[in-house]
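ok trying again, last paste got cut off:
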Amino acid sequence: MFLRLFLLMTLIPLVEIYFLIQLSGVIGGGNTILLIISTGLLGAWLLRRQGASILQQLQHNASQSQLPTDAITKGFFTFIGGVLLLTPGLLTDVIGMSLIFPPTQILWRKFFLHQWARGVQSGNIRVYTSATGFGGGFSQTHTRKTRRIDHTVIDVEARDVSVSKNDEI
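nice, full thing came through this time. structure:
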């Protein structure tokens, strides 16, 4: 896992730098910077627009007492796409746009959910739960045993013991 993360964090910036240098040689440095800024602005606009739509869908699902699984996966991919769009570079912009743009987001979601299901079935992804679920009642393993401690109870009445300036301590 560490090796994959290390390669991801070093190779992607190197590829991005290479692409930006090649692109600036073709369209010029100023146009390359303008392209990076415009894709970032477009991505921020798309992220805001899609985010509002997802929030509406979450609220609608909550009002209908439905599980918001579709809205949650849309929100996840929209968030990741927005982060990638705000990262300068061409490769991250293309991937980020495809994660936010609804027709390609559907393809990403299908691919991700298929890979997730395959991982769970093969045992590479394990899901752990710590509760019995809804409506299962309380099992003996989940109940906490309380220890009763008998102590003497002292009943007292409170009275105000204010110290004034004239009183000596």
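cool. DSSP finds five helices and no strands in the chain. The longest helix spans residues 29-63.
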